[in-house]
What does this fold into?
Amino acid sequence: MTKMQDIDAIVIGSGVGGLVTATQLAAKGAKVLVLERYLIPGGSAGYFERQGYRFDVGASMIFGLGQNGTTNLLTRALSAVNVSQEAIADPVQIHYHLPEGLDLKVDRVYEKFLQNLTAHFPHEEQGIRRFYDECQKVFKCLNSMDLLSLEEPRYLLRVFFQHPLACLGLVKYLPQNAGDVARRYIKNPQLLKFIDMECYCWSVVPSEMTPMINAGMVFSDRHYGGVNYPKGGVGQIAQKLVQGLEKAGGKIQYQARVTKILTEQGKAVGVQLANGKVYRGKRIVSNATRWDTFEQLLPAESMPRNEKIWQQNYQKSPSFLSLHMGVKESVLPAGTECHHILLEDWEKMTAAEGTIFVSIPTLLDPDLAPNGYHIIHAFTPHWIDDWQELSVSEYEAKKEEAAWRIIDRLEKIFPGLDAELDYLEVGTPRTHRRFLGREDGTYGPIPRRKLWGLLNMPFNRTAIPGLYCVGDSTFPGQGLNAVAFSGFACAHRIAVDLGF
Ligand SMILES: Cc1cc2nc3c(=O)[nH]c(=O)nc-3n(C[C@H](O)[C@H](O)[C@H](O)COP(=O)(O)OP(=O)(O)OC[C@H]3O[C@@H](n4cnc5c(N)ncnc54)[C@H](O)[C@@H]3O)c2cc1C
It folds into this structure.
């Protein structure tokens, strides 16, 4: 057994949630060890390189890299360990290509976005403004305070005395869902479907199941801090956090797959790696999903009761079929935006291969592809069950058929795509499971039914003393800025517990 009892915190996984926890703790003087099963950091915010292209694995619409307020958590996490990341402002968050000719851009300028939307629904002008203004109210509350652990009573008291109105505002919105607020102001069914898509494209559930706190954050921050692309690719964020971690005295080991969280008298005391090596630490943090943590790293049969309840409330969202394409620049019509969403039939919004998400990061950072070429990353929901029990040739054939179905549909936005394709790599839910270490390749937890906003999402502490969870299966959910929040909160709670 390798005894390193002076390790304050062992973090399992170097996703952005794990790295923000680790860097925050290291910046406070804690001794931190991050154990990552893969070759590089970042998890779903990682990257890979092929034939001169640098592809983002997943995330590419990045919130939290702004300069003002308190919700720019990625910028703040980086600067806490004395590193920074150049960010390229994206003038349009999404260009929607939706059924019934609903073609619309979400401009960075709030009033311009409202005008664009109102042009499609002139009779709903007032309702549109009232709904999005209410989202802004949520955001203003969040953006006025330090975002730390809601499990720490002294912090809660301090924030309450400093910002009583903002706190009361947030308490009011905590149990609400965006769809209920939208329906108070908006009646047009097509516009309500648009609001569903506005939520679905990051929460992977329609508006009635999307917490108002998260909607308030996304629908407002895109006009405040804005969507910004990290120069050099999304993988830079994790790489910079690792640089900062090491500068602050923390350590990271790659190809270090944790197979077991070790407990003694019911308390988490260490971890065991696939190669048998054991590390002990005062606190253990899992950046794996809650399913992986409580079913794989700990014995599933002794799962704590509150985790079982959580699983009754939340299920795994689907994974994705991802097409990573290199294309000739002539494919992109003049004025093409970086992010697109394509859907032809509202009924198929949540179905496998219904909504297609597109990202063209080379429009913001041309250095990610060879001269004269662009990257198009297109992905669409898919469930792992459709990809199991296939022979190698069946699997490859299924991948190819699915990829061409997506490319055919994308021809509508990018005529000539098929002919101008220079490189194509297809990832399936199995790829996501294998490379990201996420059960079933899931994007994250989604409510099984309509819940009370964010009230049922667990915080960082778990029922096992000494064990914490961080990342997208903790409050407040998926997305890089959200998991950064979870990381700030987790580190704050651990620092208080350890007396830092
Ligand atoms: C296709 C796709 C598109 C997305 N688009 C966006 C977007 O545009 N904007 C946005 O903000 N978000 C987006 N997201 C979501 C975002 O990427 C995730 O919510 C976020 O990156 C999750 O971070 P995390 O810290 O929770 O965990 P992860 O990124 O899952 O990282 C967990 C890490 O832990 C490691 N690990 C797991 N188990 C072990 C173990 N047993 N031992 C050692 N290491 C382990 C993994 O290898 C991984 O590195 C997207 C995700 C996907 C898949």
About this structure: The longest strand covers residues 319-328.
